[in-house]
Amino acid sequence: MRWGLWPSWVKDPRNFTLLINARAETVSEKPAFKNAIRRRRCLVPADGYYEWKSTEQGKRPYFIYRRDRRPLAFAGVAETWIGPNGEEADTAAILTAPASADLAALHPRVPVTIEPENFELWLDCRNHDVEEVRPLMRGPEVGEFAWHEISSRVNHVANDDAQLILPITEEQREAETPKAKKASPRKSADASHDDGQGSLF
Question: In this model, does residue 196 exceed pLDDT 50?
Answer without folding.
Answer: no
